[in-house]
Each structure stands twice: as structure tokens, then as C-alpha cells.
Specification:
This protein is mainly α and 160 residues long. It folds into three domains: 45 residues; 42 residues; 56 residues, Winged helix-like DNA-binding domain superfamily/Winged helix DNA-binding domain (Arc Repressor Mutant, subunit A, Orthogonal Bundle). Helix 1 crosses helix 3 and helix 7 packs across helix 9. It is elongated, with a radius of gyration of 21 Å.
Length: 160
């Protein structure tokens, strides 16, 4: 099955509106989709401009949605979320606004819960090995080293 070729900006705009109505999209995602549909770069840029002016595309709104959903659904930390948004060419300002949507208390609690769960899987390991493996795990989830240490100190104080 071949993809439908689009030759007019209006056709691209109509399809892109539908595409953006399904879920929040980054400018990069929409640009790539427009190119897939057969628009050249200049036409795709024009469609992007139209979508922004009609509020179908909003980088700040996208960053907020992305940060909240990756935190709640995937339990990602802010470092991983920030890195992913940078890869999507989201501005530093919008990334900061998106990360600001994450509640600090809830962020700590999620990190603590992940640490506690990881600790429980490391039965029979000595303290330093448990700590090292838990730090590695939480770092891979994108949590900050300072927060990880704070969480592990609290976790160990609760175990004593």
C-alpha cells in the first residue's frame, strides 16, 4: 500500500489538523509526518506555522503533557524527561515549564517507592551492593543523584 501524496498546503493542513487532534504532537513529529505525506520542507514549514497560529501545535503544552505523562506512566525522572524533550527539539524554556508541572512531593514519593521496590528484589546482597544497584537503577530512570541519596538515606533510616 502506497502513501497518499499531498501536493497542496491546504491538504497537508487538513491532515495535520486531524493528526494533531488525536494527541499532543511536537513540531518535529508533525514536520516529519508532513514530509512523509509528500510536502517539501518549505510547504511543511508553512503548515507548521498555520497549525501554531490556530493552536493545534503548542510547544509549551506539549512539554507539560509529555513531562506529566512520562512521570506518571513510566515513572521517569526529570533528567530522562529533559533529555527526551531535548531530542524532540523542545526549547529550554518549555522544558523547564513542563518539568515544573511535576509535584515535588509526589516526585520524591515515586522515587522512594521505586527504591523500596528495588531494595526488596536484592535479598541477600550486602548494604553497599544494594545501594550501588539501587543508585544505578534510579539513575537509569532519570532521577537526580542528590535525590537518590536522600531517598536511600530515608529508606535505610526506616529499615533500622
Amino acid at each position: 500500500m502506497t502513501k497518499k501524496q499531498i501536493y497542496t498546503i491546504k491538504q497537508g493542513e487538513d491532515l495535520a489538523k486531524d493528526y494533531c487532534s488525536i494527541q499532543e504532537r511536537s513540531h518535529q513529529e508533525v514536520f516529519a509526518k508532513l514530509k512523509d505525506w509528500g510536502l517539501d520542507s518549505e510547504q511543511a514549514d508553512q503548515v507548521i506555522t498555520i497549525l501554531i497560529s490556530k493552536n493545534y501545535l503548542n510547544e509549551q503544552r506539549y512539554a507539560k503533557m509529555f513531562a506529566i505523562s512520562k512521570f506518571h506512566q513510566n515513572k521517569w525522572g526529570k533528567i530522562k524527561i529533559k533529555y527526551s524533550l531535548k531530542q524532540k527539539d523542545i526549547s529550554e524554556k518549555c522544558i523547564s515549564i513542563g518539568l515544573g508541572e511535576i509535584d515535588t512531593k509526589e516526585y520524591f514519593e515515586v522515587c522512594f517507592g521505586l527504591a523500596d521496590k528495588k531494595y526488596k528484589t536484592l535479598k541477600g546482597e550486602n548494604y553497599l551492593t544494594k545501594r550501588r544497584k539501587t543508585i544505578s537503577y534510579l539513575s537509569s530512570k532519570g532521577f537526580e543523584y542528590e535525590l537518590i541519596n536522600e531517598v536511600l538515606d530515608k529508606l535505610n533510616n526506616n529499615k533500622c
